[in-house]
Amino acid sequence: MSYNEIMKEGGDRMDKAVKHLQDMLRAVRTSQASPALVENIRVDYYGTPTPISQLGSISVPEPRQLMIKPFDISVLSEVAKAIQKSDLGINPQNDGKVLRLTLPQLSGEQRKKYAVKVKEICEEARISMRNSRRDLNKMADAAKKDSELTEDENKKLHDEIQELLKTSEGRVDKLLEKKTKEVLEL
């Protein structure tokens, strides 16, 4: 692989890790209702585990309420069961046409627990990024061994990969700070 190909691969991997982190953080509960809390909960739909987001529309009629309106009314009870089994701790109200989820106020202890969960998710992202750095450095060393890179280019590439990691970890830190603040605010 060439110098530029390795750097492009590195940028892509770091961007994917940050994007995945953002998706994971969207599903962490805060004091505000968000469709992301339930959109990836899987429901058994004719034998296939299907995300709620593909089975109906999810809206936020009030700051602490979610409303799920399935495209197919027959799946309503299955969606309710899947939400009850999830770790949200919410009991949906079924009126025969839509499900209403009223999010209870988070206690101080719950907020701290969610803040710890956010920190764990961010640490997993950092670990993933460091693994990518290791793989990229191996690619650089292999390219040097195959005489595609000189010693100086290899050293410079290692430095740029490290800089890419630092930049990406900075993005993770900002996401951690923002989400922790959201979780802890009343």
Model description:
With 186 residues, the chain is an alpha+beta fold. It folds into two domains: 3-26 and 107-184, Topoisomerase I, Chain A, domain 4 (Orthogonal Bundle); 35-102, 2-Layer Sandwich (Gyrase A, domain 2). Helices cover 57% and strands 15% of the residues. It contains four helices and six strands. The chain has helices spanning 3-26, 76-85, 108-145, 151-184; strands spanning 42-45, 48-51, 56-62, 65-70, 93-94, 99-102. Strands 3-4-6-5 form a four-stranded antiparallel sheet, covered by helices on one side. Strands 1-2 form a two-stranded antiparallel sheet. Helix 1 packs antiparallel against helix 3 (108-145).
Keywords:
single chain; 186 residues; alpha+beta; Topoisomerase I, Chain A, domain 4; Gyrase A, domain 2; 2 domains; four-stranded antiparallel beta sheet
Helix content: 55-70%
CATH class of the largest domain: Mainly Alpha
Please identify, by name, the CATH architecture of the largest domain. Answer: Orthogonal Bundle
CATH homologous superfamily classification of the largest domain: Ribosome-recycling factor
How do the SSEs run, as a string of H and E? HEEEEHEEHH
Q: Would you count the extended β strands for me?
A: 6
Main β sheet profile: 4 strands, antiparallel
Q: Count of helical segments? A: 4
β-sheet strand percentage: 5-15%
Structural class: alpha+beta
When the domains are counted, the total is 2
User: Mean pLDDT across all residues, rounded?
Assistant: 90
Instruction: State the strand order across the main sheet.
Output: 3-4-6-5
| CATH-defined topology of the largest domain | Topoisomerase I, Chain A, domain 4
Rg over CA atoms: 22 Å
Overall shape: it is elongated
